[in-house]
Amino acid sequence: MLVKKILIDKKGNIHYWIKGDLHTQFGVVKEQDIEKTDGILKSNWDKEFLCFNASFIDQFNKLNRGPAVPHIKDIAYIITYTGINKDSKILDAGTGCGFLALFLANISDNVTSYESNKETLKIAEGNIKKLNLKIKLKNKDIYQGIEEKDLDLITLDLLEPWLVLPHAEKSLKHGAFLVSYLPNITQVQKLIEESKRYNFYQDKILELIEREWIVNDKIVRPKNQIIGHTAFLVFLRKI
């Protein structure tokens, strides 16, 4: 079921609410109060909570996860740099839990995703159903070929993305992006070397570092934990 609202207590803990009374360490917040309130409400112990309608990211944070998922900092860069919109025709491969596909489908109405592992596919299906987004999910190995044509973007979260290059070359529009999410630099090297055999331009290779800050009165400092290397992003464009 979809999360309807989130409540934040005085310690900054986030409580995801679907229905019924909310029981917390700061008391009970009644269902009727949650339903009718946006802003500040109180528990039966007179403790304050902030109450917001759940956004896409709130829904996303409650999804089922598998062993490895793309980080949202990397997903955000893929979306912004490739410039996709609601009309973009997108193919995602290596669906996993469906995280990248879901973010893409929150923007575009035409997203297809390939996943060869049936067990992982079930997790993705459940997550897609929870968020009620339109994604054509296929139990298919992209190494064997791509059915879709005139694509604006292909995203790959795969062990050997270079095996997709001959298929992607035929399916992407001129100037369209192929983006690969790779944890190891040796994979990046292999992909770049192989891309020279096909009609692709090496646009950009990068990794993103995220450092969150604490600003609380006179306390202004970065948080102790930095989100460092999660993956390399390789951006190729069809010539």
Question: How are the SSEs placed, and which strands pair?
Answer:
Layout lengths: L4 E4 L5 E4 L4 E3 L2 E3 L1 H6 L2 E4 L5 E6 L2 H5 L11 H11 L6 E5 L5 H7 L4 E5 L3 H14 L4 E3 L12 E6 L8 H7 E11 L2 H11 L4 E7 L6 E4 L2 E4 L9 E7 L1
Parallel strand pairs: 7-8, 7-10, 8-9, 10-11
Antiparallel strand pairs: 1-2, 1-6, 3-4, 5-6, 11-15, 12-15, 13-14
Main traits of this protein?
single chain; 239 residues; alpha/beta; Vcp-like ATPase, Chain A, domain 2; Rossmann fold; seven-stranded mixed β-sheet; four-stranded antiparallel β-sheet
Strand order of the largest sheet: 9-8-7-10-11-15-12
Structural class: alpha/beta
Count of DSSP H/I helices: 7
Query: Roughly what percent helix?
Result: 25-40%
Largest sheet: 7 strands, mixed
The CATH architecture designation of the largest domain is 3-Layer(aba) Sandwich
Overview of the structural elements:
The chain has 239 residues and is α/β, with parallel strands linked by helices. It folds into two domains: 5-57, Vcp-like ATPase, Chain A, domain 2; 64-238, Rossmann fold, CATH 3.40.50. It has helices at 31-36, 56-60, 72-82, 99-105, 118-131, 165-171, 185-195, and strands at 5-8, 14-17, 22-24, 27-29, 39-42, 48-53, 89-93, 110-114, 136-138, 151-156, 172-182, 200-206, 213-216, 219-222, 232-238. Helix 4 (99-105) links the parallel strand 7 (89-93) and strand 8. It is elongated.
